[in-house]
Design goal:
Length: 725
């Protein structure tokens, strides 16, 4: 169709002016714009979704909004980072390795407005809010002619040797963390916003042809388009299919035509030059089998995150041939089905052709014009033009009537979830081990989460010298359940199930949840939570709002935190402690008596790392303080003082006997502090002591500490009144 129009025009327009026009079109347009050698192809859908890094790869000119793979134009080698963590005294340390890379990806050969979502291996890397799901630095160069050199690329290659890639839009990733992608650069695709809103096929054709093609008449709008292929011809022919358009010569170039607006009414061979032969006009109708039985149109569907969609139009009647149209445009399912129907309708209408022989008055009818023919219905396009022996011969092809919009379904949509990471929430505390292991070094337990469901992890560092030096500690464990206390759990005895008290907590976001547990599960350690500084377990969890829960059936003061019962305030921390979300940080013995500073940095921590200070009292390596300290009067002023020891291990009472000692020897240090200020210290190997009437004369405060292998427990005290009073 277009070949006949444009390859004919240079030879049929006579005269100096006509010859100049013909030369312009024939030499400049015909050769460089539309008619490069055969074998050249236009854009195909598969080229847009695969990221490449091959030398010489074409960079598309993007229009509207498109999802594009891009081409890696610069990268560094993988950058290895190493961190070592201690597993406690006598245990080998663990060395962790992580990898990152810096690279640049070219997106468009014309200026763009910005980038929306980014996918990595099909999963969202950057959401609609601009938040990244994996840690990376990111810069976008819009493709302006005056854009400067990227500082990272310049630092690696030298400022004087680094191109600015002017006119090329590209993205730069700096220290992209690769742990989520098998320690390799993933395949990236980008939602590129090249223009504000849809773009017409005529505007795109004018742009890719550098203004040679006038596309004002082609008003079919596309949500996005990637001008990608071996030739401009392939691109504009694809655009012509999208817009139901064709081409016509005009002074200085080509016009892209569309629609059914007739410019001229013609007689059917009645007006001819004197002396010319008649009968050179006629009608031809091709067989129905020359028309495809169906047209399948593949496109990019915005409703499917720009994944490929396929729509089909079929005609009744004979034939089996199927024609496939690859349309690298962002259009919805209905528009794609309507477009496929229009292609099929035009192919059917084009079976009918007319040949008209006319006189001098038809010289101004140019190829590509829309005409009507007297006595014949419809609108016709002039596909061929010849002038010989004072007769104008026109070849005309019927145009299809307009296709009404067709509704269609995009099919099942499986969009990658777009959840915001949010800022890091951190709960760090010192406690006895959560299992029955005996520690030889102080341990900090860390539970982390985010303020939004998309949070996954944060990088950790710690300092033992007030922040002068920092040690990397890898990343946090799986996201935990963190919130704040709304109503208080009150005061209760630790020896019994607390049936009286309940309290409410507000979790960080609605995706967090709590569950109930029966007594068997509680005995196995389920539903252990840090509430303020008290560890407790809850049997019943009742959701009363999207993020608010009421907890009851409490087991209080777990893991030797009975001294913290009733010490909570509204707004204090709440953290569920589960094996998969609790990370252990073992510190050297020298840290006892000081504090550890912890920094957590996640991808949502735009305001900077989250910092926390935790005092190191040695709780994890010291025996718990004795309990049930009491004195029995013997009648002569002497008092038999007894207590019950506790252990750092054996928290479940499974055999009806005492828990294992958990220390190298059983020993206690007792201090007798008289009211007059004098003091006496006694060490014993049994959980009992006889205090004589003489020793308690004047009144005495007695305190007991259990001696462990690495230090003493906190003291428990009892006052013995003056026996002589």
């Amino acid at each position: 169709m277009a070949t006949l129009v444009l390859t004919t025009i240079g030879s049929v327009i006579g005269g100096p002016v006509g010859g100049a026009i013909g030369a312009l079109i024939g030499n400049a347009v015909d050769r460089n714009i539309l008619f490069k050698p055969k074998g050249r192809e236009g854009p195909r859908l598969t080229e847009l979704k695969l990221q490449t890094s091959s030398y010489g790869t074409q960079i598309p000119r993007l229009f509207g909004t498109m999802r594009i793979g891009g081409c890696v134009i610069w990268s560094t080698d993988l950058i290895e980072s190493r961190s070592t963590s201690s597993n406690g005294k006598g245990q080998p340390s663990t060395t962790n390795y992580s990898y990152s890379a810096s690279f640049a990806v070219a997106l468009s050969a014309r200026r763009i407005m910005g980038v929306g979502r980014i996918w990595a291996d099909g999963k969202l890397l950057r959401g609609t809010g601009g938040d990244f799901k994996s840690a990376t630095g990111f810069r976008l160069h819009l493709g302006e002619e005056g854009q400067g050199v990227d500082p990272l690329i310049a630092a690696a290659g030298g400022a004087g040797l680094t191109p600015a890639h002017r006119g090329i839009a590209y993205a730069v990733f700096e220290h992209f963390q690769l742990a989520d992608y098998g320690n390799r650069i993933p395949s990236l695709t980008f939602e590129v916003i090249a223009d504000a809103g849809p773009v017409t096929v005529g505007a795109i054709a004018a742009d890719v042809s550098d203004g040679v093609i006038d596309g004002d008449d082609a008003g079919q709008a596309l949500g996005g388009f990637a001008a990608y292929g071996d030739s401009v011809r392939g691109v504009v022919e694809t655009l012509a299919v999208a817009g139901g358009a064709w081409f016509a010569p005009v002074a200085g170039g080509i016009r892209m035509r569309a629609g059914l607006a007739s410019e001229r009414a013609l007689a059917d061979g009645d007006t001819v030059a004197a002396g010319s032969s008649r009968g050179k006009h006629g009608r031809a109708i091709a067989a129905l089998e020359t028309v495809p039985q169906s047209v399948v149109l593949a496109h990019y569907d915005p409703a499917r995150d720009f994944q490929t969609g396929v729509q089909q139009a079929r005609r009744p009647g004979a034939g089996r041939r199927e024609e496939r149209v690859e349309m690298p445009a962002a259009i919805d399912a209905g528009a794609a089905k309507t477009m496929a129907g229009a292609v099929l309708s035009q192919a059917d209408a084009a079976r009918e052709r007319r040949t008209l022989t006319l006189g001098w008055d038809a010289l101004d009818v140019s190829p590509g014009a829309c005409v009507t023919i007297a006595g014949v219905g419809g609108v016709w396009r002039v596909s061929g033009w010849a002038f010989e022996r004072s007769v104008v011969r026109l070849e005309c092809v019927r145009l299809a009537a307009g296709t009404l919009p067709i509704a269609a379904s995009p099919g099942r949509v499986l969009s990658a979830p777009d959840v915001t990471a949010g800022a890091t929430l951190l709960a760090a505390f010192e406690t006895l081990p959560l299992d029955d292991s005996l520690l030889r070094a102080p341990r900090i337990t860390i539970v982390a989460a985010g303020t939004a469901p998309g949070w996954r992890r944060a990088a950790l560092s710690y300092s033992l010298d007030g922040g002068a030096h920092w040690t990397s500690f890898g990343a946090t464990a799986a996201p935990g359940v963190i919130g704040r206390i709304v109503t208080l759990p009150g005061v209760s005895r630790t020896a019994l199930l607390d049936r009286r008290n309940a309290f409410e907590v507000e979790l960080a976001h609605a995706a967090m949840a709590l569950t109930s547990a029966d007594r068997g599960a509680l005995d196995a350690g389920a539903n252990l939570a840090l509430v303020g500084d008290e560890l407790l377990q809850f049997g019943t969890a009742e959701q009363i709002a999207a993020t608010r829960w009421r907890l009851s059936g409490l087991w209080r003061g777990r893991r030797a935190t009975e001294a913290r019962i009733g010490m909570q305030l509204a707004g204090d921390r709440f953290a569920l402690i589960e094996p998969e979300s609790a990370l252990s940080l073992d510190l050297p013995l020298s840290a006892v008596g000081g504090e550890v500073r912890i920094l957590a940095s996640g991808i949502g921590d735009t305001a900077g790392p989250v910092a926390m200070r935790v005092p190191v009292a040695g709780t994890a390596i010291l025996p718990p303080s004795p309990v049930a300290l009491h004195g029995s009067e013997l009648g002569n002023g002497d008092v038999a003082v007894r207590w019950i020891r506790r252990s750092r291990t054996g928290w479940r009472w499974i055999d009806g006997v005492d828990a294992p000692l958990g220390e190298e020897r059983e020993a206690y240090r007792i201090t007798l502090l008289r009211d007059d200020g004098s003091a006496r210290t006694i060490e014993t190997a049994a959980p009992a002591l006889l205090v004589t009437a003489t020793e308690r004369a004047g009144g005495v405060m007695l305190s007991v500490r259990q001696i462990g292998a690495l230090g003493e427990s906190a003291a428990v005290a009892i006052r013995l009144p003056d026996w002589t009073m």
